[in-house]
Amino acid sequence: MQTIDVFNNSAIILKRKRPSYLVAYMVILIIFISSLVLISLFYNYHRYLHYSGRLVIIDSKYYLEMFIKEDDIPFLNNHILMIDQKEVEYQIIKISDIYNIDEKYQKYYEVNIQTKLNGKQIINNNIINLSFKLPPTTLFKELKKTIKKGLM
């Protein structure tokens, strides 16, 4: 009797059937990965920077004083400030040369902003939550920035 070599016989390899659950699993996995890649490439969304500011009244003018990360300072120019879910125009008065360092060794600069507030919020030393609305971006761009930042 001759022994049949199962691994090198092309007729047996071609006639072999794979389990249907394995094929279905692979198809679902390929569809899921391709849809995830398409969503990350084409879905646009706005990023927000969230900070807390303290209202300071000096010579009958009020300013919002806050500490902002060194990496986020370039994002402050020409973007939208949101206070209580309302878009507000603002003007940067001063960015301090002196900085504070936190436990993760990140630099925070003091920034003074002048903006219009409603009467209820104008109280000396009032804490106000601010959000800066950044331009639209995609998940792929943000992932690319994060990887690039991690490599530096």
Structure description:
28% of the residues lie in helices and 42% in strands. It is α+β, with helices and mostly antiparallel strands and 152 residues long. The protein has two domains: 10-42, no CATH class; 45-151, Beta Barrel (Elongation Factor Tu (Ef-tu), domain 3), CATH 2.40.30.170. Strands 4-3-7-1-2-6-5 form a seven-stranded antiparallel sheet. The longest helix is centred in the first third of the chain and has 23 residues, at 20-42. The model has no long low-confidence stretch (mean pLDDT 85).
Topology:
Blueprint: H1 10-15, H2 20-42, E1 44-58, E2 61-69, E3 80-83, E4 86-88, E5 90-101, E6 107-115, E7 127-138, H3 139-151
Antiparallel strand pairs: 1-2, 1-7, 2-6, 3-4, 3-7, 5-6
Compute the CA-based radius of gyration.
28 Å
Q: How many domains make up the coordinates?
A: 2
> Architecture of the largest domain, according to CATH?
Beta Barrel
Roughly what fraction of the amino acids lie in strands?
A: 35-45%
Q: What is the residue-mean pLDDT, rounded to a whole number?
A: 85
Q: What is the fourth-level CATH superfamily of the largest domain? A: Efflux pump adaptor protein, beta barrel domain
The 3D shape can be described as: elongated
- The computed structural class is alpha+beta
Q: Order of strands in the sheet with the most strands?
A: 4-3-7-1-2-6-5
> What level of helicity do the residues show?
25-40%
Span between termini: 67 Å
Q: What CATH first level of the largest domain would be assigned?
A: Mainly Beta
Instruction: Report low-confidence residues grouped into runs of 5 or more.
Output: none
Write the H/E string, N to C: HHEEEEEEEH
Please, how many helices? 3
Largest sheet: 7 strands, antiparallel
Can you tell me the CATH topology of the largest domain? Elongation Factor Tu (Ef-tu), domain 3
Number of strands: 7
